[in-house]
């Protein structure tokens, strides 16, 4: 009896061992297949089971077991990417805030340059004119020669300072920095809104980076090498945004009624776009050209008058003319730098750039085929109206009057057309 029990136990043990060896590869394969970290090919499982004389392993819950893991991994990757983009955007926001403060401080400094240099030049010119007049009255002698030489030195110094001032135009430099500071603050607020209301992506980071670089190019800080030409041959509106909005023209007759856009709103925006191009931008470009011509004449006359006064102060019987030229130079310098003609030119140029920016914003939205990729139509209409200082009803009236006037071929009707902006 004992021998029989021992034989049965031995048979059960060998039988279980044999079955374990047969099942073990299948269990291992199933574990590997269900693991979320390993992705074994299906062919390996089939070959492994075939060699052990088993049926092909057909997991019934492969997709249900693997899809959640894959989705979890994708969500983790997206979270990591979003976190990295958010960190980059926070870094850029700090740089933008620093840029705004930097332009503000440098703008105040250059405004001080304009006032201090103008006061110094006018003081030199008036003192030189007084000395030249006194020398002409008293006649010839050692004291008179000293007056003439002193007047000549003052006129020469004033001429040198005026050449530098007319080259760099401190009042225009100060206006550039004021505009840059305002635009950097505006960009800073846009970044804050993006961080608060949207899921930050790499596209947001790229877009903001391009805007920062475009602003740096439009309003450079250094004077040597990178300074904008203060007397350009062709007057063009200021550009401080990246030109990378290229969309294909939507199909004719296509009705867009999504994302707040419809056919009437598109027609309205085209009417506003026409007014901006015909009236506002063209008017401020024309004013910029007029102010630039005036500034060129004043920039030439100032050093010319002080130079003639310097020569006349040392020549005999020309002291009275030196005093006259000195007085004329004082008047011209006060008109140019005291009146900040360079600043007025930059203000008009930036105003033309503002309208050009609005035009490009409208065009980029109208040229986008898919309405979902546009800015929300109702929000965009409200923004355009407020930027132009109008209500929504006034903006629609402007668009309708623009459409009516554009259908007329007479120049008189277009000249009588109102401007789009009520702010400038």
How is the secondary structure organized here?
Elements: H1 2-34, H2 42-51, H3 62-138, H4 142-168, H5 170-197, H6 202-218, H7 263-314, H8 319-338, H9 341-366, H10 377-387, H11 392-407, H12 411-415
Keywords: Membrane, Transmembrane, Transmembrane helix
Region (Disordered): 403-424
Pfam families: Chloroplast_duf
Polypeptide structure, described:
This protein is 76% helix and 0% strand. Helix 3 (62-138) packs antiparallel against helix 4 and helix 7 (263-314) runs antiparallel to helix 9 (341-366). The radius of gyration is 39 Å and the shape is elongated. It is an all-alpha fold and 424 residues long. It has 12 helices and no strands.
What's a quick, concise take on this entry?
It contains 12 helices and no strands. With 424 residues, the protein is an all-alpha fold.
Helix and strand succession? HHHHHHHHHHHH
Rg value: 39 Å
Largest sheet, in brief, is: none
Strand-residue proportion: under 5%
In helices, the fraction of residues equals over 70%
User: Any low-confidence stretches, pLDDT <50, length ≥5?
Assistant: 1-45, 51-66, 246-256
Distance between the termini: 116 Å
Mean pLDDT across the residues is 80
Number of beta-strand segments: 0
Number of helices: 12
SS-based class? mainly alpha
Q: What is the overall silhouette?
A: elongated
């Amino acid at each position: 009896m004992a021998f029989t029990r021992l034989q049965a136990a031995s048979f059960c043990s060998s039988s279980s061992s044999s079955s374990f060896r047969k099942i073990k590869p299948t269990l291992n394969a199933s574990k590997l297949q269900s693991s979320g970290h390993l992705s074994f090919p299906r062919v390996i499982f089939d070959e492994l089971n075939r060699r052990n004389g088993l049926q092909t392993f057909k997991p019934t819950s492969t997709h249900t077991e693997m899809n959640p893991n894959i989705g979890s991994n994708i969500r983790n990757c997206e979270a990591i990417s979003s976190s990295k983009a958010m960190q980059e955007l926070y870094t850029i926001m700090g740089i933008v805030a620093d840029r705004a403060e930097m332009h503000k401080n440098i703008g105040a400094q250059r405004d001080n340059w304009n006032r201090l240099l103008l006061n110094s030049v006018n003081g030199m010119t008036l003192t030189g004119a007084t000395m030249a007049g006194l020398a002409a009255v008293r006649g010839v002698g050692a004291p008179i020669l000293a007056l003439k030489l002193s007047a000549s030195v003052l006129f020469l110094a004033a001429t040198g300072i005026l050449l530098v001032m007319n080259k760099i135009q401190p009042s225009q430099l100060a206006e550039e920095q004021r505009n840059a500071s305002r635009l950097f603050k505006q960009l800073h607020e846009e970044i804050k809104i993006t961080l608060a209301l949207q899921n930050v992506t790499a596209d947001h980071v790229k877009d903001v980076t391009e805007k920062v670089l475009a602003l740096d190019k439009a309003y450079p800080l250094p004077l040597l090498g990178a300074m904008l030409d203060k007397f350009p041959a062709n007057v063009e509106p200021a550009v401080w945004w990246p030109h990378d909005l290229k969309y294909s023209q939507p199909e004719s007759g296509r009705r867009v009624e999504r994302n707040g856009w419809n056919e009437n709103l598109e027609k309205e925006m085209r009417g506003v776009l026409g007014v901006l191009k015909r009236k506002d931008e063209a008017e401020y470009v024309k004013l910029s050209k007029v102010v630039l011509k005036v500034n060129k004449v004043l920039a030439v006359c100032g050093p010319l008058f002080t130079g003639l006064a310097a020569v006349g102060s040392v020549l005999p019987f020309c002291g009275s003319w030196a005093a006259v030229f000195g007085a004329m130079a004082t008047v011209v310098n006060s008109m140019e730098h005291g009146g900040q003609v360079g600043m007025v030119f930059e203000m008009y140029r930036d105003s033309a750039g503002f309208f050009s920016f609005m035009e490009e914003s409208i065009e980029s939205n109208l040229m986008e085929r898919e309405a979902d990729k546009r800015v929300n139509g109702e929000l965009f209409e409200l923004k355009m109206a407020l930027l132009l200082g109008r209500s929504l009803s006034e903006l629609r009236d402007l668009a309708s009057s623009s459409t009516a006037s554009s259908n007329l071929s007479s120049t008189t009707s277009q000249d009588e057309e109102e401007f789009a902006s009520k702010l400038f």
